[in-house]
Amino acid sequence: MESIQEKAKKADERIQQLKSLISNIGTRQLDPEVYYNVLQEENKRLKSRVQSLVNELTSLENQRGVTQQYDFVNKVPKAPAESKQQAETPQATPAAAAATTTTTTESSASGEQSKAKDKKEKKKTAAKEEKPAANTAIDISRFDLRVGKIVSVQKHPDADSLYVEQIDLGEEKPRTVCSGLVKHMQTTDLDQKLVIVLCNLKPAKMRGIMSEGMVMCASTADKVEFLEPPSDSKPGDRIECEGYDCKSPDAQIKKELSDQILPDMSTNDKGEATFKGILWTVGNGKNVIKSKSLANVPIK
C-alpha cells in the first residue's frame, strides 16, 4: 500500500508539472508538434502507471478475497460467472425434497379444503335463497291436522273434567293428549276411536300433565261429538282442504293463532267438517270427515 501511495504522489507531481507547462503556453512560444509529442508521451506514461497501480490494487484485493465488480480495461461492470454461481448453488437434499413434497401436498390439501368450504357455503346460500317465505296466512294451512287412534284413556288424577289419552299418530310413540270430555263421554266412547288431532299446537301442562295436541270436536253448549274420519283411515293420514296447501304446516303454533283460525271451522248442514265452507278430506279428497249428529256447529 505504501508503494501505491508513493506512486500516486509522483503521478500528482507530474500532473502539476503539466499544468504549469499548460499555463505557460500563453507566455512563451512552443512548437505545437513538440508540445503534442510531449503530451502524448506523458499520457502513455501516465496510463501505464495508472494501469500498474490498478493491477497492484486488484492483486491485493484478490489476496483478501474481495471479488472484482468492475473491468477497468473495458470500463464496464463484470458479468457474474455462471459456473461459480452454479457451483455455489446448494443441491436439494432428499430431506429437503421430501419437505418440499410435503409442503406441496399440504398446500394442495389446503386448497381442496378451501374449495370444499366455498362449495358448502354456496350450497347454504342457495338453500337460503330457495327457502320459501314463512306462511303468514290466518287459515287452515297453518294447522297440522292428522288422523289419530286413541289406544288408551284414563281420567286425569288431578282434574275431574279431563281425560288423559294416548293417541297413535303414526309416529314412533303415542302422544299424550288431555281433553275436557268427561262430562260428555264415557271412557268406552274414546278407547280405540279414530279421531282428528291438531298436532302442532304448542304443548301445555294441564294440571301437571303435558298435553301434546288437541282432539277436534263438533261442539255446542250441551253436546260434544268427535269429528270422525272414514273407517279405512290410518293414524298419521293428513287432513286436506281444497284450495289450501295443508302439506307444509307450521312446526308449532301458539294458542293465540289457533284462536284466530278456529272461528272459521264448523260443520255444514250434513255434519261435515269444513273451513270457510270448504270440506275437510282425507287421502283422495273424496273421503270427508263428519260429526254423527251435530250440523252447523263450531269445531273446536
TrEMBL record:
<dbReference type="InterPro" id="IPR012340">
    <property type="entry name" value="NA-bd_OB-fold"/>
</dbReference>
<keyword id="KW-0175">Coiled coil</keyword>
<feature type="region of interest" description="Disordered">
    <location>
        <begin position="78"/>
        <end position="133"/>
    </location>
</feature>
<dbReference type="GO" id="GO:0005737">
    <property type="term" value="C:cytoplasm"/>
</dbReference>
<keyword id="KW-0694">RNA-binding</keyword>
<dbReference type="GO" id="GO:0006412">
    <property type="term" value="P:translation"/>
</dbReference>
<keyword id="KW-0820">tRNA-binding</keyword>
<keyword id="KW-0963">Cytoplasm</keyword>
<keyword id="KW-0648">Protein biosynthesis</keyword>
<dbReference type="Pfam" id="PF01588">
    <property type="entry name" value="tRNA_bind"/>
</dbReference>
<protein>
    <recommendedName>
        <fullName>tRNA-binding domain-containing protein</fullName>
    </recommendedName>
</protein>
<feature type="compositionally biased region" description="Basic and acidic residues">
    <location>
        <begin position="114"/>
        <end position="132"/>
    </location>
</feature>
<dbReference type="InterPro" id="IPR051270">
    <property type="entry name" value="Tyrosine-tRNA_ligase_regulator"/>
</dbReference>
<feature type="coiled-coil region">
    <location>
        <begin position="1"/>
        <end position="63"/>
    </location>
</feature>
<dbReference type="GO" id="GO:0000049">
    <property type="term" value="F:tRNA binding"/>
</dbReference>
<feature type="domain" description="TRNA-binding">
    <location>
        <begin position="139"/>
        <end position="240"/>
    </location>
</feature>
<feature type="compositionally biased region" description="Low complexity">
    <location>
        <begin position="86"/>
        <end position="109"/>
    </location>
</feature>
<dbReference type="InterPro" id="IPR002547">
    <property type="entry name" value="tRNA-bd_dom"/>
</dbReference>
